[in-house]
Amino acid sequence: MTDVLTAQDPTATDETWWRQASVYQIYPRSFADANGDGIGDLAGITERVPYLASLGVEAVWLSPFYPSALADGGYDVDDYRDVDPKLGTLEDFDAMVAALHGAGIRVIVDIVPNHTSDRHEWFREALAAPAGSPARDRYVFRDGTGPAAENPPADWVSIFGGPAWTATGDGQWYLHSFAKEQPDLNWANREVRDDFLHTLRFWSDRGVDGFRIDVAHGLSKDLGEVLPTWAELSAMPKDGTHPLWDRDDVHEIYAEWRKVFDEYTPARTAVAEAWVAADRRARYASADGLGQAFNFDLLEADFDAPSFRSIIEFNLGLAEQSGSSTTWVFSNHDVVRHATRYALPPRNGATEKQGGAWLLAGGSPDALDQELGLRRAQAATLLELALPGSAYMYQGEELGLQEVGDIPAADRQDPAFFRNPGVDVGRDGCRVPIPWTRDGSSFGFGSGGSHLPQPAWFGGFSVEAEDDDPDSTLNLYRKALGLRGQLQSEERLEWLDTGRDDVLAFRRPNGWTNVTVFGDEPYELPAGALLLASAPVADGALTGVGTAWLRA
Predict the structure, then answer these.
(1) Helix or strand or coil: residue 482?
(2) Residue 246: what pLDDT?
């Protein structure tokens, strides 16, 4: 296999770069708009490469930039081997990759293999073809029930709410685990498998360093002749035999992908988005499979020292078991930003979506303790960056951005909002275009407006406002990422006794020590040179709700 990377490219070597990488997630439509049409684009990312380099990240992960009708924010893909014309061209993609690689930043792209969009050429062909045709076999079609096939094959509910089956008008129905515009693929079909191998090589040949696999646990399905009811399906154990989710045989697919990844030098990487039981994540992260899997446990936890320690210990154990490294994340394109989550009362073990009740109540900033939320977010991020493993950050968190909770209904875009009225407000609030300048029609996002409304308070959180402020969240991230690159060591830690339930401390093998205070009371720091702190240090004590890094 001929690789487009050259020996002079700083990203062309190091097979293990991903194990402890700092990765910055870009939601392309909301990062930077080069042509002023209100939608972020690839050229905008290229223009902002100096910013990414100054931040100190080692890789960027791009959410989907493929042609799409945006029925689900780009996760409804029309063509897996092209760029949405609203975002640019393949030539723009190549220029972006070259600029990022030139800055020593690797590129990870999103792959969405569970489903295509309903505008994909395969699905259009399937709708035009008769029942039982090879075109329909690429997807999951079933005959309807009832005298005229007027009822769905089963009463299943989609992830976004509403029925999971849609009629085609000829007596058949197709399965969509998500929106009706996202028909599920049939991964038992060899043509489907081969086409995705082609896609992986297509982007790898263009210099992509790795892949984030959307809904990695959902590809393999085993649907018998008689389909279970929704109640029966929901009660089935997720132990590798569930008809739809986390089936053991999904790993046969990823074993084929691994062979493709290993054709390249360095081998391409992958990380699974697999919402599975924690003890089943290791198989996705195996060296014979995708290599790494997202760990969302800290993202779902309250800001609580015992919970954090338990999660860290458990996931480091899983990583050792799989031979992979673990991943840490607090925010992404699907959840309420962590500066806002930490500004709300703790859930105390409740299972409702974090920030969901606040959003349903109107998402008013007045209901937040924003100062406390930001202090906690900064402390949590420094702890994350000190841990062994990969740290994934979401665009705007380095500015301390709060969730935009009060977007008017007329401006919302997320299908979850429209399919679950009064139940789920959706994810638009974390997808609002980020602010670059204090003012302007879109706070520097582009010369025009922005596709989601930005609040007036955004200017105070802009890159321009924080750039020269030594105490800003932006500069805290810059300092932390710079130090992390210098301090990173073996993937181990040693817990230190702090004498307090609300304080966690650990030491990495090179003497790098992290101390995080979850409560309000000051804590006297251990001996060592103070490298960085997210809260004031007075008379040798960290003054509550903060993290400090020291070096022996």
Answers:
(1) helix
(2) 97
Q: How far is CA 120 from CA 52, 76, 198, in A?
A: 33, 9, 16
* Nearest-angstrom CA–CA distance, 388 and 491: 5
- Taking the complete model, does pTM exceed 0.90, yes or no? yes
Categorize the per-residue pLDDT at 350 as very low, low, confident or very high, splitting at 50, 70 and 90. Answer: low
- The CA R_g of the chain, rounded to the nearest whole Å, is 23
* Catalytic residue list contains 214: yes
- The encoded tokens of residue 380 equal 């949590």
Active-site residue, from 41, 84, 92, 214: 214
Q: Rounded mean pLDDT of 521-531?
A: 97
CB contact burial 315-328 (16+ within 10 A = b; e otherwise): bbebbeebebbbbb
Active-site position among 232, 263, 501, 520: 263
The answer to whether the beta carbons of residues 485 and 467 sit under 8 Å apart is: no
484 in Cβ contact with 547 (< 8 Å): no
Which of 315-329, 393-407, 421-435 shows the highest mean pLDDT?
A: 393-407
Q: Which of 153-157, 158-162, 345-349 has the lowest mean pLDDT?
A: 345-349
End-to-end CA distance of the chain: 47
Q: How far apart are CA 455 and CA 406, in angstroms?
A: 9
Residue pair 373/528 in contact (Cβ under 8 Å)? The answer is no
Peptide bond into 266 cis (omega under 30): yes
Segment 175-196 mean pLDDT: 97
How many residues belong to the chain?
552
Closest CA to 334 of 430, 191, 231, 415: 430
Which residue has 């991964």 as its token pair?
Answer: 187
- Confidence at residue 3, expressed as pLDDT on a 0 to 100 scale: 39
Residue 2 has pLDDT above 70, yes or no: no
As a whole number of angstroms, the distance between CA 224 and CA 334 comes to 32
Strands ordered across the beta sheet of 529-533? 494-495, 503-507, 512-517, 546-551, 529-533
Give pLDDT tens digits for 91-132.
999 999 999 999 999 999 999 999 999 999 999 999 999 999
Res. 293: pLDDT tops 90:
yes
Please report how the helices 473-487 and 370-386 are oriented relative to each other, as an axis angle in degrees rounded to 10. 10
Q: For the purposes of burial, counting CB atoms within 10 Å of the CB of 434, is it exposed (0-12), middle (13-18) or buried (19 or more)?
A: buried
Query: How far apart are the C-alpha atoms of 452 and 433, rounded to whole Å?
Result: 7
Average pLDDT value for residue range 323-335? 95
Identify whether 468 is a catalytic site residue: no
Residue 26 has, within 13 A of its CA and on its CB side, a CA count of 27
Cβ neighbours of 63 (radius 10 Å): 25
Q: What is the 3-state secondary structure (H, E, C) of 240-293?
A: CCCCCCCCCCHHHHHHHHHHHHCCCCCCCEEEECCCCCHHHHHHHCCCCCCCCE
Neighbours of 91 (CB within 10 A): 10
